[in-house]
């Protein structure tokens, strides 16, 4: 295998510029996406469903923290026969993202921004930085990694630990996610995988979800919860605790 001595100028004029170009293009893409991104229209029925489920779940888990009278009032509000909020819940189905023109427009905006920036960076790297060996990895690798790490450099005698400029671009494409999270926060617009996952899921509620059935099940589980107030004789217990500490 051929051993190479890498010129320091390659580090200064190829390796570091690729990282800087990708970083600043990522920042530009993030802010352009925020500019073209429209305000999401809240779904009133979905929001009401989530609020009811959240409040009833809090009551089920933390009901022992409030007096029995307050617990029973809230339980009646959710579970009263034919009148309770969980009992009379209407059947609602979430609209598929493919059927919502507003959501389709937002997906198209995000996809266009992603494609343009990726094509632009790929063109810059291929035009100005192609054909360079930029890095030698300090650990051994099998020959299977040669195709992945030496794109654009077709040398059979070159050791697999050397990385070409084009492969360095692909490595940074995924490796800069942590840096973008530190600079822009976790909820940034540079993570392509997160964007594709959000497009595939299409929100909290899945199409065809029967919310009335879910609310009925929640009402049945809340109905069997017994109240045991954890703050019974709390004053006496506090006095006894303080007295034991004073001794």
Comma- or semicolon-separated keywords:
247 residues, 10 helices, 60% helix, elongated
Shape: elongated
Distance between the termini: 80 Å
Radius of gyration: 29 Å
Low-pLDDT residue intervals, each spanning 5 or more residues: 202-206
Tell me what portion of residues adopts beta-strand conformation.
Answer: under 5%
How do the strands line up in the largest sheet? 1-2
Number of strands: 2
- What count of helical segments does DSSP give? 10
Q: Could you give the topology of this structure?
A:
Elements: H1 8-36, H2 44-62, H3 68-79, H4 101-128, E1 133-136, H5 146-149, E2 162-164, H6 165-175, H7 177-184, H8 192-201, H9 211-223, H10 234-246
Antiparallel strand pairs: 1-2
Helix pairs in contact: 1-4, 1-6, 2-9
């Amino acid at each position: 295998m051929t051993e190479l001595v890498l010129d320091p100028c390659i580090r200064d004029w190829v390796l570091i510029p690729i990282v800087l170009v990708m970083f600043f293009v990522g920042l530009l893409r993030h802010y352009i996406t925020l500019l073209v991104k429209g305000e999401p229209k809240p779904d009133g029925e979905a929001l009401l469903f989530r609020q009811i489920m959240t409040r009833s779940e809090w009551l089920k888990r933390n009901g022992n923290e409030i007096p029995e009278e307050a617990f029973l009032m809230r339980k009646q509000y959710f579970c009263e026969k034919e009148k309770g909020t969980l009992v009379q819940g209407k059947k609602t189905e979430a609209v598929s993202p493919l059927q919502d023109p507003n959501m389709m427009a937002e997906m198209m905006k995000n996809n266009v921004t992603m494609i343009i920036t990726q094509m632009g960076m790929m063109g810059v790297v291929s035009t100005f930085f192609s054909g360079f060996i930029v890095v030698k990895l300090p650990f051994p690798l099998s020959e299977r990694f040669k195709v992945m790490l030496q794109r654009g450099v077709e040398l059979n005698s070159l050791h697999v630990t050397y990385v070409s400029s084009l492969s360095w671009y692909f490595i940074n494409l995924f490796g800069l996610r942590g840096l973008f999270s530190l600079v822009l926060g976790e909820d940034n617009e540079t993570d392509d995988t997160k964007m594709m996952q959000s497009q595939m899921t299409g929100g909290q509620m899945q199409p065809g979800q029967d919310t009335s059935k879910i609310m009925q099940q929640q009402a049945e589980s809340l109905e069997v919860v017994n109240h045991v107030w954890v703050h019974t004789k709390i004053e006496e217990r506090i006095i006894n605790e303080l007295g034991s500490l004073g001794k």
